[in-house]
Amino acid sequence: MKPKRKVSGNLGRTQYRDGNEIYAGIRARRGPYKRCPYKGKKSIGDQRADMHDVLNPTYPNPDVPIEQFNFCLLTRKGEKYWDLQTYCIICHMDYRGGRSREAHLRWDPLTDDAIRAAYRKEVGATMQCSVCEEEKEPEAFGISRGMEKGLHNECLACVSAKSASIREQIWLSDGDWDSWKTAVAKMRRSKQVACAGWSRAQEAGLCLGSDIGKRMHADHIIPLRAGGIHDARNFQPLCSACNLKKTDLIDPLTTSENIRKLVGKLYQPIVRDTDSALMIERALKGALIQHLQSLLKRGAYRTAIEEKKREVNGQWNVERAYRKGVEWLEHGGGRLAD
């Protein structure tokens, strides 16, 4: 097992608004086409000389448009510059899938403790977190059986901090944020956690019933997008199958009284006893968008984010939070779900 690599700077073209300009610069330097050298994963026996043509027949070698490759930021002699990833987007996905299959073949039969023991034996006593860049013991990282080293790149502390900052800072949620963090940490430390269940997943027989705490999802009963509070009262553990089905929905069997208890003060008057849970959900989501649009129109959105950061002792970047919120509103408020 090789020492764990740092996460690369390959962010992909969808991460940048100026992607067209970046491609134009690459095109001026190396031309409009590039060969994709992918032949498959040798170690799992799927190599063949024409693998790219098989996977991406619309753009066969050698003239593959550079837009078929994600770009990445490289460094040469201390200078940073944009270039293309080695494999085209489709082949890169197959390459990643092959690495994941290899990882699962090795790690699936092993317990979490055995995976960490293997890392200690083959790599070392500590691992560097890709976010905080601190050297920590393997126990500080979540298990990821689909990754080469069996461990997640980010330590559990950074994963938890991200979940309590990326979305919540946009929604400006009410509630006791510290109680939410405590509930999530308790769940992640538990060896076995029962899934609260989501009706559609249960009806389809997909609910896992329970799982180890580190694999469970911290879900808001009333989604943040519907004005839900970021508070332990609004917390429930869901298995991956239930969380995937639930997305940002409110259980249709939830009473208006319970919904009212789990939304912020601004949204409580919107919850009417005569409305169904579905009607209330739509009203709450619309009210949140209207609230953010009003803050933005009055030039008070950034200030509101700063005040919330002070209130909850948040660690996020205000400008990034502001930008993400504005982008969300510009795209109709439909891309960032709880």
Set down the secondary structure blueprint.
Blueprint: H1 19-30, E1 33-34, H2 51-55, E2 64-65, E3 71-76, E4 79-84, H3 89-107, H4 112-122, E5 127-128, E6 135-136, E7 141-143, E8 151-155, H5 156-163, H6 168-171, H7 177-189, E9 193-194, H8 199-203, E10 210-211, E11 217-220, E12 235-238, H9 240-246, H10 256-261, H11 277-297, H12 301-312, H13 318-330
Antiparallel strand pairs: 1-2, 3-4, 5-6, 7-8, 9-10, 11-12
Summarize the structure.
The protein is 40% helix and 12% strand.
Low-confidence stretches: 7-17, 334-338
N to C succession of SSEs: HEHEEEHHEEEEHHHEHEEEHHHHH
- Terminus-to-terminus distance: 37 Å
Number of strands: 12
Radius of gyration, taken over Cα atoms and rounded to an integer in Å: 23 Å
Which terms would index this structure?
338 residues, Wheat Germ Agglutinin (Isolectin 2), domain 1, two-stranded antiparallel sheet, disordered C terminus, two-stranded antiparallel ribbon, globular, alpha+beta, single chain, 13 helices
